[in-house]
Amino acid sequence: MAARKGDWVQIHSTILKPQERSEHLPEDTKNVPFEMRVKGFLVNESAEVGDYVEIETLSGRKIHGKLIEVNPKYRHDFGEPVPELLKIGIELRKILDETER
Amino acid sequence: MNNYSYQKIMERKNEIIKKSVGIDYEKFRTGGIAFDYEKMMQEVGYSIEEVRKIQDEVSVGRTPLVELKNITRLVRKISKPGKGARIFLKDEACNPSGSFKDRRASLSVFHAKKNGYEGVIAATSGNYGAAVASQAAKRFLKCIIVQETFDSQGIGQPEILEKGRACEAYGAEVIQLSVGPELFYYSLVLLEQTGYFNASLYTPFAIAGIETLGYEIAEQMWEKEGKFPDVVVVTHAGGGNITGTARGLIKAGAKNTEIVAASVDLRGLHMASDSDFNRKSFTTGHTGFGVPFAVFPDRSDVPINAARPLRYMDRYVLVTQGEVFYVTEMLAQLEGMQRGPAGNTSLAAAIAIAKELEEDKIVVVQETEYTGAGKLPSAQLTFARKMGIEIKRGDPLKEDKPGERIVIPENPSQIEFIELNLFDLKKSYIKEIMKRNNKYKFSEVEIKFISEDIRLPISETIELIKITKEEI
Questions:
Q1: Domains contained in chain B, number
Q2: Whether B240 and B385 share a structural domain
Q3: Taking chain B, what is the end-to-end CA distance rounded to the nearest angstrom?
Q4: How many Cβ contacts (< 8 angstroms) between chains A and B?
Q5: What is the CATH number of the domain that holds A61?
Q6: Looking at the structure, do residues B357 and B467 belong to the same domain, yes or no?
Q7: Closest Cα of chain A to B76: distance in Å?
Q8: What ipTM was predicted for this assembly?
Q9: Are B361 and B248 in a shared domain?
Q10: The dihedral of CA B52, B56, B61, B64: what is its sign?
Q11: Calpha distance A10→A33 (Å, rounded)
Q12: pLDDT reading at A100 higher than 80
């Protein structure tokens, strides 16, 4: 997807390669890079996802990275109905109802 | 090697922190590992009257203290005759950004503004980010929040994604990082590059900001019931919550109130592990912070941590993830309050504690937090299931396995706690000091300091030092 100057985008960059990371890390973490994602407004005239671009962040900093998303969406949600939770309210009210009687 | 390499930045750590916090911590040191804690809190902090005034300016604090009448009724139903203390809850979700963290942030941001900083930076994956962002918006400062958000697959923890969204809603820049303690390194890079104030969770400002919470609990309870609470249960992670709340209670005169710390039991999961990161359904209020920060507070992002949990803890109890989700549902369905989940850790513990206490006793759950997408039990459990975690109804104390199985109680009688031995924690504290400083002999000043820092009489402290030394 193409982005134009001023579009709200998200970039990615690697801050530390595995060999540059802190010494005291569990093995699984030691083997992967230390990465960053930041959002901001595109400074370049235009760009495609995958391009190395410049953005202006919400605090007004200008930083570089690989364009990974244009109009980045919030994808976290309320989840699905969870059967293990659905009857808790009914069960608890029943215990209190019996107290009343 | 470039100027911003890991090594170079860590070499400049003290210099960067001094400039970004504006505190010369060295002047509080009294020799060796010792420092004058109260002097630091007095000289750098603000009095409770000043804090209240600052918080009133930005509508922080003075939240309702709500009696949980239906939950108390339920607890009595499952307790032995005559048992079942009354449970009250301090509804901190009523603060501007939805948690008690507004109290911490209000003072840090006020202080940053007063001292002419252009912006604030906070390294936090918790509600504190939204709190700093909200306060910065009110005080017209720029704000950057640094979060540990993703694993190496690029999968974000839903609760942290939600907290990031909230920060952006208040106009803050959010730096989302992958798993690892280098978050601290990158915060230093940003502090140096921007010259912003370090709104650390662990400065005297951040702790003084919470004192009003304990103070209000004491005041409100006195007004409602003519007495101070018998027990206050505090969700415990980095130690600021318990330190500030207990100090506030004491300042209000509630010196005999028992302070119980409560954390979610995530023992066995490594906090810096990329593969364990998304196997947790709680991102704070858990043992991964609670235990290490109790036994070695000075692992924080400032040279001397103003949060000293062992000074104030009377008990430390653990509850399981499944119990906290269960009581989160309970709070919504019986009291009409959708809150949490992490803040409800203390609610789960309070229910278990109330069962053992006489009916005329009063237990206060000291906080709530806003909830919503990403944070709800349904959001977290849907995510956990996708990560391969087993979810079932059952007896949490028998079947819970952090990172593998979440067990939702089948009935309220199964809400119980695991009590950690405080003496063991105090011993671990001494062990940490010995190992980190390669030091096994302590001066009189240091022994007095340790004795205060772990709240143990001097004679017992000397004995504990001796035992610990022999064990190492």
A1: 3
A2: yes
A3: 39
A4: 160
A5: 2.30.30
A6: no
A7: 10
A8: 0.96
A9: yes
A10: positive
A11: 19
A12: no
Return the ∠ at Cα B210 (arms to B207 and B215), rounded to 5°.
130
Question: B204-225 and B101-114 are packed helices; what angle lies between their axes, rounded to 10 degrees?
Answer: 130
Here the tokens at position A31 are: 């083997």
Residue A99 has pLDDT above 60, yes or no: no
Domain holding A35, by residue range, is 2-75
Q: Are residues B216 and B91 in the same domain?
A: yes
- Please report whether residue B337 resides in a domain: yes
- A80: nearest CB among B186, B334, B378: B378
Residue B1 has pLDDT above 60, yes or no: no
pLDDT by residue (tens digit) across A43-96?
999 999 999 999 999 999 999 999 999 999 999 999 999 999 999 999 999 999
Q: How far is A47 from chain B (nearest CA, A)?
A: 22
- Residue B19 is predicted with a pLDDT of 95
Q: What is the C-alpha to C-alpha distance for residues B354 and B377, in angstroms, rounded to an integer?
A: 24
Which pTM was predicted? 0.96
Asked whether the predicted pLDDT for residue B18 surpasses 70, the reply is yes
Q: Quick check: B343 pLDDT over 60?
A: yes
pLDDT for position B43: 84
pLDDT digits (tens, 9 = 90+) for B165-194: 999 999 999 999 999 999 999 999 999 999
Domain of residue B166 covers 6-21+99-203
Contacts of B374 in chain A (CB under 8 A): 76-77
Judge: B334–A39 Cβ closer than 8 Å, yes or no. no
Helix (H) or strand (E) holding B287: helix B287-295
For chain B, what percent of residues have pLDDT higher than 90? 97
Cβ of A96 within 8 Å of Cβ of B176? The answer is: no
Instruction: Give B293-298's long-range contacts (Cβ < 8 A, gap of 24+).
Output: B293/B237, B293/B238, B293/B239, B294/B236, B294/B239, B294/B261, B294/B425, B294/B429, B295/B425, B295/B428, B295/B429, B295/B431, B295/B432, B296/B429, B296/B432, B296/B433, B296/B436, B297/B202, B297/B239
Using the beta-carbon criterion (under 8 Å), do A78 and B412 form an inter-chain contact? no
* Domains contained in chain A, number: 1
User: CA-to-CA distance for B458 and B361, rounded, in angstroms?
Assistant: 33
